[in-house]
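User: Hey, my collaborator sent me this sequence without any context and asked if I could get a structure. I don't really work with proteins. Can you help?
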Amino acid sequence: MERSKALRFWPVVAVVVLLDVATKAAAVRLLVPQRMPHDVIGDWVRFTLVYNPGAAFGLGQGFQYSRWIFLVLTLVALGILGWLYRTADGGDRPRVLAIALVAAGAIGNLIDRIRHDLGVVDFIDIGVGAARWPTFNVADIAVSCGATLLAWVLWHETPQRADTAAPARRLSTDPAELT
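Assistant: No problem. I've predicted the 3D structure and written it out in structure-token form, which is a compact way to encode the shape of the chain:
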């Protein structure tokens, strides 16, 4: 069972990390200068190179040590994901997939935090006119999809209820049964 879990987990991690690294490298090479939008599907989908030194959606930007704080937080998150992976049942495909997606996205953005002083490379820019979603990357997509799937999996788990764990005892009012 462990082998089947690994065969579901590691290919997803490898593909997402490789896709993330490759698309970020292409963005850095092709989308110059920084912050200049390149229309892909009109104004709705654009590629715009930006560096995000903070967390998702630019949280923590401007803080001098944010790179190192988010690097450490990512390592802690990867440790928790590793524990979730080890405790997951190999037959629980959605849970294993969710953990793989979140871990792969975290690894992709961690690579950027280690490689670039400027921050994580973001380039996918979606919106209409001035109403834009914060710019993101493949790793962010993996983390968002994986976290959503993991929340769904955890929400739909059937907890062991106390009344199903042991047979219910019937209360009797018959004095003969009380002794």
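In plain terms: The chain has five helices and four strands. You can pass these tokens on to your collaborator as they are.
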